[in-house]
Write a structure and sequence with these properties.
Elements lengths: L3 E2 L10 E4 L9 E3 L4 E14 L2 E13 L5 E2 L9 E8 L3 H6 L6 H9 L4 E3 L1 H14 L4 H16 L4 E3 L17 H11 L6 H7 L4 H12 L3 H17 L5 H7 L5 H12 L3 H15 L1
Helix pairs in contact: 2-4, 3-4, 6-7
């Protein structure tokens, strides 16, 4: 569960690879020198890119820079999950983009990708369409498609920077704590009463030291993260025909009013509103 360096193989004569990985319950906390574009589609999930730990609903499109540690986006997802991952060769920026003056905006985009960039709205919709189209094209046309995608991303204002500072692997080299252990503890206990003293002991830290470490890693307190995780799990149960009251207690809350209040703070809608809207969307897609 320590940070792993992923070794990526490319086909001869190709500058990038496009594929659909599926790791599910595997905790793959990793980095690689290749810049990566990821599209993930699920009811909801957790994204961990650099120091940022946040959730997505329905889908997410992310550009992740060279050697930025990240967790596989299907980790812990118990519902259907589809992914498209595009990885560019390590020399893609320097050898293909930098020498071409017309690619100046793409150059700036790829240089900025070390922050982890999440795209939404029409940008996401247009890029995902082009990614699917690329799967059926020959190598040359696929490369042109990739350049078009990067140009769309470079000119988009529908983008969120996930990190405020450099989180490439050099920042993590001295990290001795295994985040996988913490994730697994929370996943196994979120519906009970996760105890900060217990998890601190598991990872061999005093409680104050653990709290400082966890806040530094996630920009959240342990309690806030657990509640965030509970709300994320609640979304899954709400779309499985459980009542709001059943979901409240199933994910570990002891007060229905507090659950409703916290859910609305996190999502902008009540649990009932969330279920009604997303069940309708699922029915329309089916």
């Amino acid at each position: 569960m320590k940070i792993q360096k992923e070794v990526i193989d490319f086909e001869n004569g190709k500058s990038f690879k496009l594929f659909s990985p599926s790791l599910k319950n595997c905790f793959f906390w990793h980095h690689h020198p290749e810049i990566e574009l990821v599209y993930v589609e699920a009811i909801n999930g957790i994204r961990h890119v650099g120091r940022d730990i946040s959730v997505f609903t329905e889908s997410d499109l992310l550009l992740i820079g060279s050697n930025v540690p990240h967790l596989n986006f299907d980790y812990g997802i118990q519902t259907d999950c589809r992914q498209l991952v595009l990885q560019m060769r390590e020399n893609f920026l320097q050898d293909i983009v930098v020498p071409v003056p017309e690619f100046e905006n793409i150059k700036k985009l790829l240089e900025k990708s070390y922050l982890g960039l999440s795209f939404s709205g029409e940008t996401k919709k247009n890029v995902v369409k082009k990614l699917h189209e690329m799967k059926d094209k020959n190598s040359f046309d696929s490369l042109i498609g990739l350049i078009e995608i990067l140009q769309i991303l470079a000119h988009s204002d529908e983008v969120k920077e996930l990190n405020k500072e450099d989180t490439r692997i050099k920042w993590f080299l001295n990290d001795k704590i295994r985040m996988g252990t913490i994730y697994d503890y929370i996943h196994g206990n979120y519906d009970k009463k996760p105890n900060v003293n217990e998890i601190a002991k598991i990872v061999s830290l005093s409680t104050p030291a653990f709290c400082r470490y966890f806040k530094k890693q996630t920009n959240m307190t342990f309690t806030d993260f657990v509640n965030n995780y509970r709300i994320n799990q609640a979304k899954i149960f709400l779309l499985k025909d459980y009542s709001v009251t059943e979901v409240c207690f199933q994910v570990g809350f002891e007060s229905l009013s507090y659950f409703n209040k916290l859910f609305k703070q996190h999502t902008g809608e009540t649990p009932s509103e969330f279920r009604k809207k997303h069940l309708k969307n699922i029915e329309v897609r089916n």
